[in-house]
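wait is this the right file?? whatever heres the structure
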């Protein structure tokens, strides 16, 4: 559970690092947006690295990456709706449902031993 919470928190920082400047930093020069994004991403790394270290062994590397991607999408949906003020269209929901199906298959069956 600690792994998942750390990955969720790290994705909050990463989402703001990658997309936050689209709303408030659009007039910034590109170099400034990059520096601010790197500064925010530092916090993401400070959470993601321990999350993956704690989780590896409980989860496989593949499963950790899939958890991270699902967390990224969940955080981004909230971010896009409330921060960027974008509408969530039906086709995005269908795409997310297919990705959820992919996550199901990653966790529903026992992976072969290494």
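ok assuming it is, sequence goes like this
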């Amino acid at each position: 559970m600690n792994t998942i919470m750390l990955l969720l928190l790290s994705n909050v920082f990463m989402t703001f690092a990658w997309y936050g400047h689209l709303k408030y930093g659009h007039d910034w020069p590109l170099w400034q947006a990059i520096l601010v994004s790197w500064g925010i991403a530092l916090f993401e790394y400070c959470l993601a690295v321990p999350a993956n270290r704690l989780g590896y062994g409980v989860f496989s590397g593949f499963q950790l990456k899939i958890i991270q991607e699902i967390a990224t999408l969940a955080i981004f949906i909230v971010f896009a709706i409330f921060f960027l003020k974008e509408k969530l269209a039906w086709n995005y929901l269908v795409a997310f449902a297919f990705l959820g199906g992919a996550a199901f298959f990653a966790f529903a069956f026992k992976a072969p031993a290494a």
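The chain has one domain: 2-108. so i think its the right one actually
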